[in-house]
Amino acid sequence: MNYDRILIRYGEISTKGRNRNKFVDKLRKSVRIALTPFPNIKIEASRDRMYVLLNGENGIEIIKKLKNIFGIQSFSPAIKVEREMESIKEASLTLVKSLYLEGQTFKVTAKRSDKTFDLNTDEINNAIGGHLLTNIAGIKVDVRNPDINLRVEVRKEAVYLSCETIKGAGGLPSESSGKAMLMLSGGIDSPVAGYMAMKRGLEIEAVHFFSPPFTSERAKEKVIDLSKKLAEMAGGSIKLHIVPFTDVQQAIREQVPENYTMTSTRRMMLRITDEIRKKQEGLAIITGESLGQVASQTLESMYAINEVTNTPILRPLISMDKTDIIKIASEIDTLEISNRPYEDCCTIFVPASPKTKPKREKVNQYESYFDFEPLIQEAVQEVETLVIKPDREPHSEFSELF
Questions:
Q1: 302 labelled binding-site residue
Q2: How do residues 133-151 score in pLDDT, each as one tens digit?
Q3: Is-contact 34 51, C-beta < 8 A?
Q4: 395 is in an annotated binding site
Q5: Which among 148, 201, 258, 262 could disulfide-bond with 176, CB atoms 3.0 to 4.6 Å apart, if both were Cys?
């Protein structure tokens, strides 16, 4: 069947009140960016529905793109028919015939959004169902569990027919909830946290801490590849801020007792990320922390670490089991990358017995013996910012100007 359009359903956007049009506009922008490779398409959007007019473009490839766009609850390849019953019946017959296999069952599900249409939903169901039974040998009706569910949506401008409902990514459209900085390590958790934050409409910029020569270029490449996956889900590009962290980490190792180095390291990372957030005009910081998973993720550790900022810290994974996080990582295709055996700065210099219940007073006392501020500011000044796009080589933010 040659579909001429794809019907997009909003889901959560439909619960918005006066601001709904702003969310629709954001979703339309996301769809347009994702479908840039298809120049002939046209996007039509209203408060209730969005349509992608194919105009001869490859519908199968477009469907693959739409599956990953946040803000889409579901979508259906569809055909547009005039609001005339004979035309509707013939188009329905052609559509169902193109999908029907011997022995299959069907049902007709009509939705009359325009109540001025001559027939009500039961009459539409009966008229189309009777036409299909008369003209397709062997087909039977099953209203509970049909093989083919013909959806008939009657609207003011036309009638739309579809037989397939494809699940979308859900959530809210990209960039509809503001900007936040994602603390991106090379592990399994933080890319999943970034994905879940983007699903709630956040625009993310990633911050990665790089400690050469203790961490290798392979570790850096690993994070760039993770960023590419996130950029793909974002529907365009994301910025990756790579922070030179060697001097800060060595100072912590020399000045802070071993069992408190992990706590102090996380505090310094948070301070630096917050400085980058201010420069980039972000409103929050995202981490991949899951309560109790490791020593730095106990409630006592979070309490001691959070002291260095008043910025909201978003933890999408806070109550999730590791197995659930791994499952999502596999689904979004980051698990294999995260499992590459290249250490990041979170895994080097790990003390044999890190403090699981650190005290704020003690970590403040240990840090007071050394002025970390110049090292923090130097690290912020020397940040390397890359613009990451899917399946393309990263380039510096500065090169974008040219």
A1: no
A2: 999 999 999 999 999 999 9
A3: no
A4: no
A5: 201
